[in-house]
Amino acid sequence: MFGTIGRSDSATDNAPLDMYDTTIMLKPREKWRSGVTYEKLIQEMDAKLQFPGLSNTWTMPVENRLDMELTGIKTPLGMKIQGPTLEGIQQAGAQIQQVLSGIPEIRSIFAERVSQGFYLNIELNREEASRYGLTVADVQQAITSGIGGAKVTENIEGRERYPVNVRYNRDFRDNVDELRRVLIGTPSGAQIPIEQVVHISFSRGPSMLRDEDGALTGYVYIDLKSGNYGDFVKTADEMLRQKLRLPAGYSFKWAGEYEFELRAK
Fold it and tell me: By three-state DSSP, how is residue 227 classified?
């Protein structure tokens, strides 16, 4: 089996910045074409699976899970950048990615876009809501149930439990204009568009908040063509010392399986 992890790699990409795991089942080795190796398989799959703004990392599913549990990094090798602001961490990660991307041993490298999340803001106009006899709870109920989805019951099949959630169809909530037309019931029985009692807008903010050792942290994921982490880190460290200038208060350290190599030594 191979696991592939695709990550958003574009500052202007509107796709989620989370990682996506896909498992690929391989045929038994005796059924492989003559001369095929794991490295050649990866090269062929990389050639077939390329999306703008995404990069691939190939690893074994069990190894991927163990790396994540033990080191926090989903790739065999990575870096942890720490500093006082997410914007500075993101900028440092982008610089590190640019500096190291030219090393031949790297199959792929990606620095998290930790400060480029998108958020939907719904601000209640209390005066307008009171004119319709609506409370804050009434409006919040319409938002959580109609837009976010609310659990209304649970289906029981033997020892299995399946929650049943209800919310508006995607056509009624896939953009801001449609969200403004979501209906909310008033005590008088009237149905009014929710835009009459709330203001809906988008904003940017942190896509995630990761804290390690009392400091904000961002990850750089690195996938190597070989498992020689020690020599690679030595080469990469030298390049970073020559070309990278981090602001005061920011630092980076290597993570992943390289940590185990250091402990063993």
Answer: coil
